[in-house]
Amino acid sequence: MSADAYATVPPSLRQRRRAVATQEIVAAAEQHMAEHGPHALSLRAVARSLGMTVQGLYHYFPNRDALVTALVAKAYEDLADAVAAAVETAAEEPAPLRFMAAAESYRRWAVTHVERFQLLYGAPLRHYEAAAEGPTTQAMRRMSEVFQREMFDGFTAAQLAAADTRVLSPTLQAHLGTLLPHGPETLPPPATALLLSAWGHMHGMVVLEVFGHTSFVGEHQAEIFHMAMRDLIEDIHRRIPARPTGAPAAP
Question: How many CA atoms lie within 13 A of 74 on its CB side?
Fold first, then answer.
């Protein structure tokens, strides 16, 4: 049988049942976190809510870390889906407005799914460490690529390499040069520095709100965030030199 034929074989009944049970376990764990917070995650409580034993749950997730990894990866994927959908809705808008749509969708998801956001960015769960280059890293990278694309859409590699970031040390430049892809090439170090700075600004504001540190702003938090993101993208684009007259547009 050819490789193509194998690829079209539908999943067996056993595989479909396992997939459904796995989804039910993850959903129950999300519900438990919503009620008790990520640090109170209990495999025993999750199993009990599904009418299972802990030993039965171990047939799907061999330990707590495997379940946490699934929860983290799914949270990142759901957050990335929300951000990507917002960008798609704003597809006909200029790049700065698409970036703002992505940022505001990021905030909305976080304040709507507080416990899941805290699982991603709150205090680390004791004794848990995600595998390097595993599903959690891959899901996080997918989301960061959306922000990278919208932030730098329309700029050439030469423009990004000439962005004004003051002075970067040689060692920092070398490190930044290996971090993020930009199309077929690596994102130039000045652009990577701008992206990381912008991410810290955006994410920091969201974290402050999610953890209740800006509650004194009340119902105006969305407006403050909108203003900050507008100023942020305008400042970043001011730091990138204009394309010389007659130069080809970015691919």
Answer: 15
- Give the DSSP letter string of 67-87: HHHHHHHHHHHHHHHHHHHHH
* pLDDT category of residue 10 using cuts at 50, 70 and 90: confident
What stretch of H or E contains 181?
A: strand 181-182
User: What are 136's two structure tokens?
Assistant: 């959690």
Predicted pLDDT of residue 3: 54
Query: What's the whole-model pTM score?
Result: 0.85
Q: Given this structure, which CATH class describes domain 71-238? A: mainly alpha
Cα separation, 243 vs 83, in Å, equals 29
Q: Name the DSSP class of 241.
A: P
Backbone angles phi, psi at 52, to 5 degrees: -110, 165
Q: Select the CATH number that applies to the domain covering 1-62 from these four: 1.25.40, 2.40.50, 1.10.10, 2.60.40.
A: 1.10.10
Q: Quote the mean pLDDT of the chain.
A: 88
